[in-house]
Design a protein that fits this description.
The protein is an alpha+beta fold and about 425 residues long. The chain has 14 helices and 15 strands. Helices cover about 35% and strands about 20% of the residues. The strands form 2 sheets. Strands 6, 7, 8, 9, 10, 11, 12, 13, 14 and 15 form a 10-stranded mixed sheet that branches. The structure holds glutamic acid and magnesium ion.
Length: about 425
Amino acid sequence: MKRHPFVMAVCSDFAGQVRGKGFPAEDLPARLAGGVGWTPTNVMINCFGAIPATPFGPRGDLLLMPDLAAEVCVDFEDGSVPEHFLLGDIVDMARRPWSCCTRHYLKSAIARLSGHGLRLRVAFEHEFFHGGVEERPGGSYGLDAIRRAGDFPHALIAAIAQAGLEPETVLPEYGPRQIEVTLRPALALAAADRAVMLRQIVHALAWRRGHRVSFSPVVTHGVVGNGVHIHFSLEDMDGKPLSHDPARPCGVSAIAGRFIAGVIEHGRALTALTAPSVLSYERLKPNSWSTTVTNLGYRDREAFVRICPVSDVAGADVGRAFNFEYRACDGAATPHLALGALIRAGLAGIEAGLETPAITMADPDGLSPGERAASNIRPLPASLGEALDALEKTGNILMESDEMRAAYLMHKRGEIATVEGLDLPALAARYALVY
Ligand code: GLU
Ligand code: MG
């Protein structure tokens, strides 16, 4: 069979879906300059493929401009065609950034942060369910569990490396047939692009083998969820690390403390973008190694923001390794929206001059209501609807564009209506198919 080289220009949208248009590979130079046609209402297609409501209707035109800096071209050498796509930015016909472009949403947050002489180094840590392989009962972190995945880790690392994503670890996670993949830290835009690419590479590899994978926050009701943890640290524009100060409590520098205070202050609204599915709130439950309240916790894997351990080994570059982990994110989130919102919340903390939040050294459940209130420790929203209400209340703090905020709220409220009435197993089954 004859096969012509084929490329897709894509974007990761409000629904955390990667959509776009394809063309013959020889047209790539022309498409880099001229983009592919795009439609405003596409951003209202929810993760189930429905458009319950749209402010745009059938009107309007946009361009999706592929970016060579975000290109994936992976030949799996399995006799099939390579995986070739480029992430892009959505612009209007005058080539101005479109208000609902998720990549622009992140880029504008990065630009604001750089106005403070700061940039963020980020690593997304992904967990996913790998179906199609034999389950190893009791196989958490087990050598035998990963063995049963065959050469999946080997092929995955090869593909990740071929795409230029710098693989760090692949491990058999706690849950049955759950795998975790981490990539090396990168600057914010590259890290978000890579998170999208990684998910697609995992899906591409699984699809070629007839396996199912899912990044859905809860694949099987009652079984531990899949998180997407966002590790971050601040640095100056020359790359000098700024997060660590050994003279301050738990080593949290003053500037990092302000940033995290903003993340905590706006934490409830933030979840509307980082835990953006109806099912996400099934993962954010007590005793599930996710998180339930807006706290900054020292080396605590149920903290909202966790102060990660750094090696105390002599010679380790503690300043550079020191980082924080935002744990209320999952695979339904578009990385660009999640990170763009996290940065905006952090900026709000810096610009308001907030002080480092109280650091919890033990389970915040042990604190009295008064102690919690004094430390700004509040319960996370119990549902997507609650999170969206919190986002709406923050006004332009997490989303300065009125058009984007209205469209996002409409999109996500439509998603809630789409799955209304489903019980938890049915809900988990529906989301498992689309993430
Ligand atoms: N699976 C847990 C989550 O949903 C995280 C486990 C861990 O890596 O600490 O976030
Ligand atoms: Mg994990």
